[in-house]
Structure formats: C-alpha cells, structure tokens
Automatic annotation (TrEMBL):
Record GO terms (molecular function): 4 iron, 4 sulfur cluster binding; ATP binding; magnesium ion binding; sulfurtransferase activity; tRNA binding
Family from the record: Belongs to the TtcA family.
GO biological process, one term: tRNA thio-modification
Name of protein: tRNA-cytidine(32) 2-sulfurtransferase
Motif (PP-loop motif): 54-59
Key words of the record: 4Fe-4S, ATP-binding, Cytoplasm, Iron, Iron-sulfur, Magnesium, Metal-binding, Nucleotide-binding, RNA-binding, Transferase, tRNA processing, tRNA-binding
Length: 305
C-alpha cells in the first residue's frame, strides 16, 4: 500500500487531506460508473448482473463500486459475483470465496481446468491467451445462462478501451475499440463494461485504499502481451506529456463523424451531391481545421499543410 494512503488526518476531528482525496476519488468513481450505466442503459429494472471477477484490481473495483451504485440506483437489480477457477498452478482458490463471503455478496465459483486443455493444445513458448480466452468466454456464457443473469459485467476500463483502439489500428487495420455494451458473440447475452469511463490510475488508487486481496495474473506462465504493453506505455507517455489527452481520445470515440473518415460502408461518398445551399456549419475544405485551446489538452498543435 502506498504511503499516501496511510498518512494520519492533519487535524484531529477534521478529515485530513488523504481522507478528502479518498472521498473525492470515491465520488468520481461512482459518478463515472453511474454516467456510463445511464448513457448506455447498461442496467435496467429487475436485471441480474453477473460480475466477472478475476482477482485483479479492476474486477474487484467494478464489483465494489457497483455494490455502492446498487444502494442508490433508481432501479432495482441483483448482483452475483462469478469467478472461473481455471486451475492454474498456485491459484489461491480460497481468496475470492473468503472475500465475497466477508462482504456478503452472492457468488458462484466455477471450477474448470482450462489450464490443462490450453497447455495440452498449445506448443511450448507460443502464447496461450487466445485459446484460453475463448474457453473462458464460452464457460462464462454458459454460467450466465445457468444463473439466470441478464447482464454480464466485465472490468475493462477506459485505458483498456483506448489500448484496444490503437492495437486494432496498428495491427488490425481497423478503427475499432472495445464497446461499453455489446451483444455476446453467441448472440444470447448482453455484456457491459461499467468502468468504461474510469481511468486505470483511479482504479490503482482505489484498490490500494480498499486493500483488495489481489491475485497475481502471472500464474498461467503465459507471455505477457507485448504489443498491448507497448501501446499502454505509449498512451501513458502521451498523457504524461499532455494531461487530458486520454480523456479527449475517449471523447473522440463518442463523437464519430463518418463523413470525415474514409469508410464507404459507413458514408455514401459515391452518392455525394452538392446541395447548392451555403451552410455555416458546412465543411471548409480549404481551411486548416480549428481546435479549441482546451485546458484539457495543453500543447495541442495542429500544423496545417
Ligand atoms: S494470461 Fe494466462 S490466464 Fe490470462 S488469457 Fe492468457 S493464458 Fe489465459
């Protein structure tokens, strides 16, 4: 736990700086999750939300904040926490049941030895993640059906979404991110990402504050995804040099202008006709684009060619 979280209050009887910061962080997490839930109508009256827990900081935080939201939400919904024990060597199987029992959340632990299947099928030294994820996905969908869950909640956050966007651009040639809400590939479930607006650094701080019993994610021995790590480092470097850039990039995902991209499937460029009517908001093709000097994006410079 970082020292910043264990400083005593500055004045006896008055909340200290750390308490105030923690309170602000909690409010921000609740506000951002509430906003995402509302914007995408992620949770509705009578839903049973299956929270997928891996034992990492993100899924712990998702469950933690969702439980707070449950108390104050305008709709009634149930939560069931689910962990898939994939039988990785050294997986501390007691940690999640103990934690979930302690906080009093209904939960289900699904035991499936996908580790052995993956080890058996994938040659030594090759990455196991795609088969492992496919197996995990299928199992979680089945469990969601068995538990009567109407929504499956995953703990991906804003930075995961942006990393995926860049990975798809760099290596997949697609402008495609990771949606806050989607229909599962088997067509039977709605998957939601209630942390879609939350920055990873806030989850790191929240996990430290709440002292979640984190289970390391290296137990399977698979190579870490190097490309994702590189993209994550690139984004963090941009954010360090230009604070607010990640937030702006996420906003861009919510403000797509198909007429100003180049995908003929999403905009009828071939059928484009002059309207003959001037428009104040029309495109000024010969002028350089203008950008507000936003304090959220200091240092933003657009060079016109
Ligand atoms: S890191 Fe390990 S547990 Fe995670 S998807 Fe890859 S193989 Fe599976």
């Amino acid at each position: 736990m970082s020292a910043v979280w264990i400083e005593p209050p500055e004045t006896p009887g008055r909340p200290g700086r750390i308490e105030r910061e923690t309170h602000k962080l909690e409010k921000r997490l609740c506000r951002l999750m509430g906003q995402a839930i509302a914007d995408y109508r992620m949770v509705e009256e009578g839903d049973k939300v299956m929270c997928c827990l891996s034992g990492g900081k993100d899924s712990y935080a998702m469950l933690d904040i969702l439980l707070k939201m449950q108390q104050r939400a305008p709709v009634r919904f149930d939560i069931v926490a689910v962990n898939l024990d994939q039988k990785q060597p050294g997986f501390p199987a007691h940690v999640l049941p103990e934690y979930l029992g302690r906080i009093g959340v209904p939960f289900h632990i699904e035991n499936q030895d996908t580790y052995s299947i993956v080890k058996d099928k994938i040659p030594e030294g090759k990455t196991m993640c795609s088969l492992c994820s496919r197996l995990r996905r299928g199992i979680l969908y089945r469990v969601a059906g068995e538990l009567g869950a109407t929504k499956i909640a995953l703990g991906h956050h804003r930075d995961d979404i942006l990393q995926t966007l860049f990975l798809n651009m760099f290596f997949g040639g697609k402008l495609k991110g990771m949606p806050p809400k989607l229909v599962s590939d088997d067509g039977r479930h709605i998957v939601i990402r209630p942390l879609a607006y939350v920055a990873e650094k806030d989850l790191v701080r929240w996990a430290a504050h709440r002292q979640f019993p984190i289970i390391p994610c290296t137990l399977c021995g698979s190579q870490e995804n190097l490309q994702r790590k590189q993209v994550a480092a690139m984004l963090q470097e941009w954010e360090r040099k230009h604070p607010g850039r990640l937030e702006n990039m996420f906003s861009a995902l919510q403000n797509v202008v198909p007429s100003h991209l180049a995908d003929t499937a999403h905009y009828d460029f071939k059928g484009l006709q002059a309207t003959g009517v001037p428009s104040e908001d029309g495109d000024k093709a010969f002028d350089p684009p203008e950008f507000p000097a936003s304090p959220a994006a200091p240092g933003l410079q657009i060079v016109s060619l």
